[in-house]
Every structure is written in structure tokens, then in C-alpha cells.
């Protein structure tokens, strides 16, 4: 699939089956159902709100989904609004066409406009830095990240000085993802 014009819109309640299919396809037969179940749990979890769930489409066909959920900082040094990007999925035949990058850019722009100061992700260190994320040592993940994956814990500052203000904090996340197994591999 070549690069194509995309529309990005907030996901709706009636998109649940579409989101599940995207995550199952994007993450494969082993990991996909686990991630799809996590997405459903995060969409139902009141501790994940406010959340931002975006769906990318081309000609009415769903190509990708991204979810940002509420995160907290403890101690909370300056009341910084934080979000956790988890997960991002792109249909396999649309991977490498800019769908994921567009979802990230649109999501970050909407979060910036809504007043979020920091966005965190535990993701591929070869992918997310292309979109402005940097390894984060200043704020601890909710659970220890194995040393071999330390560069996978990343943050992006949406408000200048937010990361410096949050230094020494630990990120808190929604109850649905607050399980050690989501953070260890």
C-alpha cells in the first residue's frame, strides 16, 4: 500500500470490533488478542479517563488506531498533565505508509491543545524517536523496566519544562494497565 490521504477521527463506541480487529492484525496472532483485550479494558476503565482514542481511515477503511490514557505523577511537583500512549496499531498492509506517524502527530497535537504536558510510551526505540520521543530516565515507569529495554521507556514534552519539573517522579497509570507483566517485556 502506498502513502494515501488519511482521515483521523475520534473512535466511537461502535468502533469496538474494528479496533479489536486492527490490534489483532497489527500485533499478530499471539500478542494481538492480548493487546486487543487491553484496549477494551482501557476503554472501559474509568481510571483511564480522560483518554484520547483515534482511528485512521482511508476511503472509509480503517488502517490504524492509537490510544492515549490518563497518567499521574507522584510526587506531583507541578500538576503536570500526563498521558500514556498505549497502544498504537496499524494494519499490516498499511505499515510503513505513514499511518502510525500521522496518528502520533494528530494525537500529540490534540493533547497539547487540551493542556497535556508530557506523554510517555513503552515502545520500540527504533520507531518512537522518529516522532519526538526520547529515552526517559527522569521519570520512573510504574514497574521496573529490564535494563536491556531501558531505551524503550520514552517521553515527549508537550509543554516546555514539564519533564524537568517531573524529574524524580514515578508514573501512575490506569488500573487496566497497572500490572507488572505489561511492563516487563
Question: Would you write up a description of this structure?
Answer:
By secondary structure, this protein is α+β, with helices and mostly antiparallel strands. The chain has one domain: Gcn5-related N-acetyltransferase (GNAT) (Aminopeptidase). The protein is 29% helix and 27% strand. It is built from 4 helices and 8 strands, in the order βαβββαβββαβα. Strands 1, 2, 3, 4, 5, 6, 7 and 8 form an 8-stranded mixed beta sheet that branches. The longest helix has 29 residues. The mean pLDDT is 95.
Features:
single chain, 185 residues, alpha+beta, Aminopeptidase, eight-stranded mixed β-sheet, 8 strands, 29% helix, GNAT_dom, acyltransferase activity, transferring groups other than amino-acyl groups, Acyl_CoA_acyltransferase, N-acetyltransferase, transferase
Short description:
By secondary structure, the chain is α+β, with helices and mostly antiparallel strands. Helix content is 29%, strand content 27%.
Amino acid at each position: 500500500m502506498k502513502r494515501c490521504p488519511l482521515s483521523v477521527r475520534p473512535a466511537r463506541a461502535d468502533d469496538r470490533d474494528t479496533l479489536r480487529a486492527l490490534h489483532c492484525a497489527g500485533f499478530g496472532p499471539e500478542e494481538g488478542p492480548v493487546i486487543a483485550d487491553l484496549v477494551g479494558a482501557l476503554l472501559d476503565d474509568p481510571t483511564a479517563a480522560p483518554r484520547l482514542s483515534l482511528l485512521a481511515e482511508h476511503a472509509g477503511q480503517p488502517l490504524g488506531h492509537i490510544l492515549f490514557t490518563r497518567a499521574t505523577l507522584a510526587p506531583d511537583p507541578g500538576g503536570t498533565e500526563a498521558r500514556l500512549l498505549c497502544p498504537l496499531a496499524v494494519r499490516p498492509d498499511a505499515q510503513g505508509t505513514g499511518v502510525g506517524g500521522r496518528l502520533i502527530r494528530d494525537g500529540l497535537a490534540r493533547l497539547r491543545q487540551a493542556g497535556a504536558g508530557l506523554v510517555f510510551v513503552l515502545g520500540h526505540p527504533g520507531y518512537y524517536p522518529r516522532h519526538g520521543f526520547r529515552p526517559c530516565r527522569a521519570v520512573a515507569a510504574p514497574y521496573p523496566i529490564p535494563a536491556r529495554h531501558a531505551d524503550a521507556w520514552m517521553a515527549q514534552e508537550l509543554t516546555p519544562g514539564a519533564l524537568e519539573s517531573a524529574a524524580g517522579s514515578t508514573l501512575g497509570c490506569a488500573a487496566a494497565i497497572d500490572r507488572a507483566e505489561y511492563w516487563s517485556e
